[in-house]
Amino acid sequence: MNKKIFDILPPKPPTTFREERPKPPLEKNISSPLFVKKKWYQVIFVLFIFILAGIFCYFTLSKAEIEIWPESDFSTFKTKITGDATVEETDPALWVKSGVIPVKIFEAEKTITEEFPSSGKILKEKKAEGIIRVYNNYSTSPQVLVATTRFVSADGKLFRSIEKVTIPGGKYEEGKFVPGYLDIKVRAAEPGVEYNIGPTTFSIPGFAGTALYTKFYGKSFVSMKGGEIKEVPQVTQKDLDQTKEILTKKAKEECEATLKDKISSDASLFTLLKEALETRILETTPLAQAGQDLEKFTFQVKAQSKALVFKPKDIENFAIDFISSQIPPEKRVLVESLKTNYSSENIDFSPGKITLSLEMTAKIFSDIDEISLKKGLAGKSLTETNIFLKNLPQITKAEVRLWPFWVKKIPEDLRKIEIKLNLD
To answer: Model pTM greater than 0.70?
Structure first.
């Protein structure tokens, strides 16, 4: 019988059982020389890191901030300047030498035309007028009638001829007498609508008692017209005077408003003094006459406004340069404190010139040479710095702040020294 070979033998069951317990940790022997040596190395390493960090902060992060109150005082200056429309806007420093600044001329015109009611009343009387045909049935000879010859209508209304006329004589035609005639213009003796009579016959009272009375007569073929008596409106001189006053005031106001809008709409900002605005009335035209029978009448007024204006910035630039020219070279002007007050003294619109009285107030302070100051402070201790700053006459007060807190000297690097001027 062949034997089988097994490459893996089955495990045999243990004959005895033993529980394995974890080994207790080995206790450190802090008294061993190796452990003590290792601990000192760690302390030295940490101290070294702190020292390096301190050196790094000292040379890279340290800085000094010095706040200085320079000697200062408010001063007032006065001068006169001339605004000239012919001066160009060039270097303001040249204005101080000449005492002249540029100004600009603005102009505007306004024409106002309005209708007003007439306040006058008048009793208007008109006489009726018309045409009558005057007949000569008396003879072949012509008959002269003087102007204002009377003609009486059938109902007793009196009319008069307007001009001298000659009535032609009659003529015979086929043995029959044909009267001569002439159409003439007549006017009623009295005004009124009662003379607006219709067609009728007229006698000539001047021929009464003679043979001519019945042979000379007149006839009208259309009605007389125009006779009336009524109250009508009339333009008075008072109407014209009051209208002129009203429109003159209105034209000035509207013309000045137009000019001010024109100035304010300009790209640059200008200052307009009340005295530097002139308004003139160019034309006053009444389109009616006093005594004219009109219910309404028209009046027209034309005004012109002219103004001299200047830029406040030019005044400010002039003031700064002027004050700078009046103070010692070691002094400076605090621009933010500048206040100006000006008023006009003389204005001439024709050439475009205005004289201003200028008053300027500003804070003047001692100039601080920051570079020289930094060089003088570099490397000094806090005590030395305070003594140094206290002995400078142009400084009234100073505060020194060092950073970080352990820094006790002003850095040598001038870039790490910050100077702040307190001019409040």
So the answer is: no
